[in-house]
Automatic annotation (TrEMBL):
Protein name (Swiss-Prot/TrEMBL): Protein disulfide-isomerase
Keyword Signal: yes
Signal peptide limits: 1-23
InterPro entries named among the record's database cross-references: Thioredoxin-like_sf (IPR036249), Thioredoxin_CS (IPR017937), Thioredoxin_domain (IPR013766)
One function term, GO molecular function aspect: isomerase activity
Length: 205
């Protein structure tokens, strides 16, 4: 009897369902594991990746979440389906210029394809399977940016500060030139009538 109970329990645990912890087929990617798992920049043999960049508070992200789970399950073994919390993993958000949520990107052979189609399951599966290839030369297709080095990450804020200072100085110089020109025009206008009167008086004599 006990043997049958254990067999039944094992069978139930093997069934994947929403009540089973860890049953999701969606891979959680982070700043630390993204490149290691996807090999997006190198184009290595980990396969294609369809990645959702989301924010936990985003209503559209919450709406697409169950659909994304279905897409991951149906594409399992064909395309890797993943998600990135862009509010936490900001290096990835910056690297891929994530400006709205959710942003869906298909990574394949060192290229990235930003998805802008329908959000239903069939449309997403179709795009991830073969549809993205039709966008090969489209405006939403680009090479995967390289992984920023430690030196890049260190120098970038310094370069940004220098650019900001130069821009401020440039703007200040332009402002001074404009102000100088305005004052010059104002003084010229004030002095010109007086000069005419003086010259007119000399002629009268």
């Amino acid at each position: 009897m006990a043997r049958h109970i254990w067999a039944l329990a094992a069978a139930l645990l093997s069934i994947r369902g929403p009540w089973v912890v860890g049953a999701s087929d969606v891979v959680e990617l982070t700043d630390d594991n993204f490149e290691h798992d996807t090999q997006a920049a190198s184009g290595a043999t980990t396969g294609d990746w369809f990645v959702k960049f989301y924010a936990p508070w985003c209503g559209h992200c919450k709406s697409i979440a169950p659909i994304w789970e279905q897409v991951a399950t149906e594409l399992k073994g064909l395309v890797n389906v993943a998600k990135v919390d862009a509010t936490v993993h900001q290096k990835l958000a910056k690297r891929f210029k994530i400006g709205s949520y959710p942003t869906l990107i298909l990574f394949s052979q060192q290229k990235m394809y930003k998805y802008s189609g329908g959000r239903d399951k069939d449309a997403l599966i179709s795009y991830a399977s073969v549809g993205f290839r039709a966008d090969e030369a489209g405006p939403d297709t680009s090479s995967v940016p390289k992984v920023p080095s430690l030196l890049d990450e260190t120098l970038e804020p310094l370069v940004a500060d220098v650019r900001h200072i130069l821009l401020m100085r440039k703007n200040a110089a332009v402002a001074l030139v404009v102000i100088g020109a305005l004052f010059g025009a104002l003084f010229a206008r004030l002095l010109c009538p007086r000069r005419v009167l003086v010259e007119g008086g000399k002629k009268a004599k």
